[in-house]
Amino acid sequence: MTNKKKIQILPNHISSKIAAGEIVDRPSSVVKELIENSIDAESSQIIIYLVNGGLDTINITDNGIGIPKNQVKTSLMRFATSKISNESDLSNINTLGFRGEALHAISSVSLFSIETKFISENRGTFLESNYGKDTGIKEHGIKTGTSITVKNLFDNLPARKKFLKSASTEFQHIKNVVVNLALGFPNIQFQLFHNTKKILSTSGNGKILDAVSEVYNLEIADNLFELISDKSNDMFQGYISNNIIQNSNRKKIKLFVNGRNIEDKLLTYAIESGYKSYLNERKFPTAIINLEIDPLEIDVNIHPSKNEIKFINHQLIFSNLERLIRKTILTKSTVNSSGSNFQILSSDQNYNFEKETRQNHKASSYISNKNYFKQSELNISDYGNQNTSYPNLPFKEILTSLNVLGQLKKTYILAEGKNGLYIIDQHAAHERIIYDSLNESYYSGEIQSQKLLESLTIDTGMIQSDSLNRKIVMLNQLGYEIEKFGESAIIIRSIPKIFSKNDPVNYLNDLIGQIDEEEGLNSKEHKHFATIACHSSVKAGDNLVNKEMIEILEQLRMTTSPFSCPHGRPTILNFTYNKLEKDFRRIN
């Protein structure tokens, strides 16, 4: 059928509704746009009042500089903005808002009112707009600042309103917006009220850790440490959590670029990648990180919500962030004390595990005729009176000072140190030792292999030929010598030396299943090495003699992250003398 309708320009009231739907999709969008305007207006206090999850009423009141009376009507027009005036300004945006679309969009789909007083004027201004039609402007008594009220959102757009969720769901979206902005701007006091109840309040004293304790809780704030200042990489500032904090989702990973809260999958992955082997699997850290970057290096004008950004050099930023996260964790974390927070080294106590490892810890085979360990003794140092507490000893010194007492349940090594009783998970500790050895050997190109007396042939199943060829190349980098045999079979001629007393076929099948040839080995080596380490290390139930337990502690001391296994489980717990004496009621 031929379309006989002619092309025509849409009326303003229709085009406004369409545009509004791109900018405002739910109550939280309204809150975000209005708070960002308040921040741009130099507010030091922002109060948010909600009724019924924002479905009925949203009110944002600030103490910013306000809007001049002669610009109030203009502010509701589409593309009306004070933040850019020419094309070149788009390349140097340093405000949260800039398009001039928010107030026009919001007022087009709600019962809208604005009260404002400009800082240099004596009287305020009041303006109402009913779904885009203003009812006139009046003088009004109000303190310097702006108060905007939005009611009955989307009542004139039934098709959009039916997609809104329950009041509780919409409120949670709004709360998340307020939390993000409160963390991004700790110098601003935020207050959030829902149905007259105060939900959130921050002091606005400029201290990010105070803001964290106010929007989350004190426990999270106490378990954060500041990103290390790096002269060659000073674009990032912020705080990240130790491994006491293990979240079940990514909601507490907060990213900002020049103060703007953003969502970026690659940078989020950089943070997670930096935490590899420090958290349990499928657990996530808390992180509040701001990237200060030249506005010419980014483009914020790619999405109406302005929460997505394009970077000129995305990969470089990813690499720098991942490296900084790992460096901070390695430098600032130490042993976990039972009943207390994960301890953090002060700046003069930092110990470079990575440097120590590369200098002293060379790859070797750890599994051979049950002699898992080198024939060296651990140097036990005497630090004086055993009642002395060393809560912030670097991990190297903690492990050096331990005196092995014995083995518990053929699973845990018991040791005495200057700060109490230490319990070491023998499997987790040995996993870390083997993982670090494999990792170092891989990157130095020194993974040791051994020839099999008889070659093994295995069928890899339904893997496509091209895919199998790529997997073989990657596996050969891990110490295997493998050749393709027919369409889906392979011949194994050599295996990593670490498998000398174990069944290499099961491990190989695990690795084949894990390798994603599209991403390549470099993006997955952590998982491969963790699998090998798990299969090759001593197990719970293995009886260890005293010399073997001492050697585990000595080799654990030389690893990059002695406090956790490659899967993120702790290797060692500390019951302090103080805690023991309190529990036995020897002291109050």
| CATH class call of the largest domain | Alpha Beta
Oligomer: single chain
Low-confidence stretches: 339-393, 516-523
- Looking at CATH, the homologous superfamily of the largest domain is MutL, C-terminal domain, dimerisation subdomain
Whole-number mean pLDDT: 78
- Share of residues in helices: 25-40%
Structural domain tally: 3
Radius of gyration equals: 30 Å
Distance between the termini: 89 Å
What percentage of the residues does DSSP assign to strands (E)? 15-25%
Which structural class do the helices and strands define? alpha+beta
At the fold tier of CATH, the topology name of the largest domain is formyl-coa transferase, domain 3
Sheet with the most strands?
A: 8 strands, mixed
Structure, explained:
The protein has 588 residues and is of the alpha+beta class. The chain has 3 domains: 190 residues, Histidine kinase-like ATPase, C-terminal domain (Heat Shock Protein 90, 2-Layer Sandwich), CATH 3.30.565.10; 115 residues, Ribosomal Protein S5, domain 2; 256 residues, 2-Layer Sandwich (formyl-coa transferase, domain 3), CATH 3.30.1540. The chain is 32% helix and 22% strand. It is built from 18 helices and 23 strands. A hairpin with a 3-residue loop joins strand 21 and strand 22. Helix 6 runs antiparallel to helix 7. About 11% of the residues have low confidence.
